[in-house]
Amino acid sequence: MNFRQFQSSYDHKTGRKKMFRKLMLLATAGMLAIGPAVAADKVKIGFVTTITTPAGVIGKDMVDAVNLAVKDIGGKMGGLEVDLIIEDDGFKPAIGKQKTDKLVKQNDVDFVAGFIWSHVLLASQKSALDAGKFLISSNAGPSQIAGKLCHKNFFSTSWQNDQTPMAMGQLLNQKGVKS
């Protein structure tokens, strides 16, 4: 199955197509930022998501999507083989940080990506960014990272968590709704 067949086979109501597009954006960002990995023989991507716990249903879709994206690009980025390392954060910030530390220190990944949950991303971001890695959030969008903790190597493919409530608050204020 190629990209176009896969893209057209998705059920628009489930949101899977949206997640796939986000992950394809991740792959594109990776190709654009490949400079630091040029001296290497592989592009190493650490992908942190929730696979276990009931919340793992989303993470499993993310893993399937990123695997499909890597397959669709022939397993290469910038002419280099992609080494994709999947880690389960267990829906816990401490475990997410531990897995991110492992990816950065032991696996020496070029990119740390994934992240469904903002509390896990917030616990993990310093480990990746302080090590000079690119950090790409597929879903989590804590406003702190767009604000005072903004970093040149952080990319979000979704939104900031406060965008929806801020817009809703503004609309309710305009309409005079008090509660």
- Global geometry: elongated
Number of helices: 7
**Unreliable sequence segments:** 1-13
Q: In which range does the helix fraction lie?
A: 40-55%
Topology as a string of helices (H) and strands (E): HHEHEEHEHEHEH
**Which structural category do the helix and sheet elements fall into?**
alpha/beta
What summary fits the major beta sheet?
Answer: 6 strands, mixed
Question: Kindly, what is the distance between the CA atoms of the first and last residues, rounded to a whole number of angstroms?
Answer: 51 Å
**Mean pLDDT score, rounded?**
84
Strand arrangement within the widest β-sheet reads: 2-3-1-4-5-6
Q: What is the number of strand segments?
A: 6
- Taken as a percent bin, the fraction of beta residues is 15-25%
Radius of gyration: 17 Å
Task: Explain briefly what this protein structure is.
The chain is α/β, with parallel strands linked by helices and 179 residues long. Helices cover 46% and strands 17% of the residues. Helix 2 crosses helix 3 and helix 4 (93-105) runs parallel beside helix 5 (118-130).
